[in-house]
Amino acid sequence: MTELNAKTRLCGLIGNPVSHSVSPLIHNQLSRMLGINMAYVTFPVEEQDVEAAVKGAFALNILGLNVTVPHKQSVIPYLADIDAIAKAVGAVNTLVHTENGYKGYNTDITGFHRSLMDEHIAIEGEQVILLGAGGASRAIAFLLGREGAKTVYLLNRSVKNAEDIAQAVKSYIGRDVIVPMALMEYRNLPNERYLCIQTTSVGLHPHDNDVVIDDESFYKRVHTGVDIIYNPYETRFMKEVKKAKGKAVNGMKMLLWQGVAAYELWNNVSVSKEQAQAVYELMKRKLG
After folding, report:
1. Which residues, 6+ apart, have CB-to-CB distance to 62 below 8 Å?
2. In this structure, what is the dihedral angle of CA atoms 220, 222, 224, 228, given to the nearest 10 degrees?
3. Measured between alpha carbons, how far is 248 from 222 in angstroms, rounded to an integer?
């Protein structure tokens, strides 16, 4: 972020709550590094005020917005356009100013994909276990289907939610790739080695010792575990994967790369891997 003046463009985050967000650190640091006159702030927005927030931001010529819970679906009716995969997923987290209104994108998908590539974790041909069937799981399920995962076993307490995601992904990519299962059916999984992605809030600080599946035999079948939680930095899920000699990573790079993808959309720039890594080191210091 350069010196604020009359030409400074504004971006921000809408959601509730937003005071804990590290997104301002990501975007303002990128602006400093790239010499772009943009500032990024947070806007707490109540559910009943989403329409007014989106229309008001456009009227104020705000360059772009990130959207976090609980508004990733509720902003959609107030957009001028929506990216194809964001429309299929049914959730957006980034709004880009256009002539007629905001266009919605889902950079959670882009961010998760870039984070996997950063860690040299492949999707194509993989047998995958996906834990949870919330909004993050839905976006990741679309990515896994699009990028050629062999089979994705989607485990969730509510099988109905898993079935809904499976059908939506099938409609989008044209093949059955998601197998919806009840969480406790993990014992019935084929005897394979899996990429396992943990998308629930179980294990989020301060509940650091919680885990979705508390069975060490499960983790012996996981060659790589990805937890989208980043606080704590090493979750109980990650510890169990490592104890079973698997590779484990957290969600901080997903957070980084979804932010980078949004920044690139707003400013029509490319952020280098070295610049992103410098921001990542700042994030780690910020989050302890």
Report:
1. 10, 11, 12, 97
2. -110
3. 10
Distances (CA, A) of 40 to 8, 10, 32, 210, 265: 10, 6, 12, 34, 14
Q: What is the pLDDT of residues 184-216, one digit of tens each?
A: 999 999 999 999 999 999 999 899 999 999 999
**Neighbour count for residue 104 (Cβ, 10 Å):** 25
Active-site annotation, residues: 72
Whose CA is closest to 131, among 189, 173, 82? 189
**Partners of 155 in beta bridges:** 131, 181
Contact partners, residue 136, CB within 8 Å, separation at least 6? 108, 199, 228
Cα–Cα distance list, 189 to 128, 148, 167, 197 (Å): 11, 20, 20, 15
The answer to whether 137 and 143 have CB atoms below 8 angstroms apart is no
Strands of the chain (E only): list them.
9-15, 38-44, 64-67, 81-82, 94-97, 102-105, 127-131, 151-156, 178-182, 194-198, 222-227, 247-249
Q: What is the pLDDT of residues 73-130, one digit of tens each?
A: 999 999 999 999 999 999 999 999 999 999 999 999 999 999 999 999 999 999 999 9
Q: Which of 29, 64, 28, 26 minimizes the C-alpha distance to 43? A: 64
Using only the alpha carbons of the chain, give its radius of gyration.
19
Walk across the sheet containing 127-131 and list its strands: 178-182, 151-156, 127-131, 194-198, 222-227, 247-249
Q: Which of 215, 228, 218, 224 is nearest to 242 (CA)?
A: 224
Which of helix, strand or coil describes residue 204?
coil
To 5 degrees, how large is the angle CA 245–CA 250–CA 253? 130
User: In this structure, what DSSP letter does residue 42 have?
Assistant: E
Beta strands 9-15; 64-67: pairing state? parallel
